[in-house]
Amino acid sequence: MPETIRVQLLRPGAKLPFRATELSSGYDIHACLEDGPVVIGQRPVMIPTGLAMEVPPGLDAQFRPRSGLARQGILATFGTLDADYRGEIMITLYSVAPDITHTVQDGDRIAQLVVTRLAAVAFEAAAALSETTRGAGGHGSTGR
Fold first, then answer.
1. Would you place residue 2 in the very low, low, confident or very high pLDDT band (cuts 50, 70, 90)?
2. Is the predicted pLDDT of residue 130 greater than 70, yes or no?
3. Dihedral, CA of residue 72, residue 78, residue 83 and residue 89, to nearest 10
C-alpha cells in the first residue's frame, strides 16, 4: 500500500501532483497563477502552486527541475518539503542566460516532486577516516 501525502488545494485551478507516465519517478507540479502569466528571466521568481502538503514523517519530498524546461534554459531550484511545513508550495524558477526568457501560464508544469524514504543516521566525530584509492580527490579528479 503506498504512503499518502495529504494535499490542500488552496485556490481554484490548483492541481494535484501526478505522474505523466506509469514509470515516471517525479510527479508534475503546476503553476497556479491568479494574476496572469509570469515572465521568467535571470532573476529568480517564485511561482505559486496553489498547493499545501502534509508529508508524513519518514518521507523525503524534493522539488526538482523539469527536463523539458531545462532543455530551454529554465531551471527550478531544488527544494525540500519538510514534514512540518504547511504553507503554500512556491517553486523558484530562473533562466540560465540573459537572452533566455520563458512565460509561465496558469496550469503549466513547472517542476517535479520526487518522494523517497529518509534514512535515520547518526553523526560521529572522527579523528581520521578510512583510506580509499580515491582519497580526497574530487571536483573532476576522476577524469570525468
1. confident
2. yes
3. -40
Instruction: Determine how many CB atoms are found less than 10 A away from the CB of residue 50.
Output: 20
40, 31 contact by CB (below 8 A): no
Best CA proximity match to 26, nearest among 70, 63, 51, 79 = 63
Torsions phi, psi for 68 (to 5 deg): -65, -40
Query: So what's the pLDDT on residue 60?
Result: 95
Query: Which residues, at least 6 apart from 80, have a Cβ–Cβ distance to it below 8 Å?
Result: 60, 61, 62, 63
Q: Does residue 135 surpass a pLDDT of 90?
A: no
pLDDT tens digits for range 72-97: 999 999 999 999 999 999 999 999 99
Distance of CA 82 to the CA centre of its chain: 12
| Residues composing the chain | 144
Rounded Cα gap, residues 90 and 82, in angstroms: 13
